[in-house]
Give the backbone structure.
Amino acid sequence: MTPATLEEIRRRLRRFADLETVATSPLYSHLAGNAADDDEIAGLLTATEMPSASPTLLFAAVHRVLQAEPFHELTNYYPSLGGSYGPDGGTWPLFRTFVLDRADRVRDLVATRITQTNEVRRAALLYPAVAIAAKQAGKPVGLLEVGTSAGLLLGMDTYAYRYQTQQAGQLAAGPARSTVGLHCALALAPGATLPSIPKKIATAAKIGLDPNPVDLTDEEQYAWLEACIWPDQPERLRLFGAAAAAQRKLPPELVAGDAVEDLGAVAARIPVEVPLVVLTCSVLWLFDTERRAAFLAALDAVAASRPLWWVSQEGYRASLEPLLPNRDDLRPGEGEAPFGTLGLVRWADGSPVASALAKTAPHGERMEWIV
């Protein structure tokens, strides 16, 4: 795979500023817009060998370096570090000077880390789809999350949910006294029917698979996950802390391995009589077309020996397109902010049967049910 060119990185920064953050993160939209026109700052992303070099990696690296200097003036613009200023005329010059003065440290993080944002709010997107799979299975299911990071999404059965709907008011699910409460706006597309969201999901086993699983008891690894959270979205930071604290009490098994080569072996750790639900969430965009096809083939191989479902919250092209081709309604239009697709695939008689259930916001704050 060929690393991204500087020109491609600049285009990604511009898109990040104009489409991906403009309505949700004023700070990152401001910084990315300026970085797109600054070769010295944008060029720091060339340190990664990942062809999918993302603006989020650059800004997470800067965030991490700034965490170590909590009294620097730049923290005034980072609510995650106690700041209260909005972006103004002084933000970019201060940011640029800070980064270039510490360019070696930023470049080292870009070269050695990946964004492993363990966004716990995405559990609210996955929950209705996993509930459908569990109902079809008719018994407690095993969860296997691919690209699990620290495994926070594996705690989905222990979180409390509030889905805000126009048709039925607020729908509640999950344990009422959970220390992690997630809110999600749930809209209906024309002709769609409100999903039935059960109060609980019964799980029999949980396991996570990741090339570099995150140990939340390690201070540096924990700090990196905090740095991956956008600094002007403090609610995300709060929920991450609550979910991390809950997970420490009952940590799932996390296995270091490859999403394709090791999928079968990790699946085999869950008894074959347990219906298996494989989860992927904002992972497959990192794969090229060939690797995505190999992942589907690995799922087929697992399905040959046991009941299997795949729940995905990914971009349509990265996940469901081979199984549900020509769904232009699942592609963002020109100038439209990116969105994900909540997918459910069930293997029946050896063949995958796929459904697109909802269009989803990147961080779990809302979804539009489409079936």
Summary: DSSP finds eleven helices and eleven strands in the chain. The chain has two domains: 6-112, 120-369. The mean pLDDT is 96. The first strand starts at residue 141 and ends at 146.
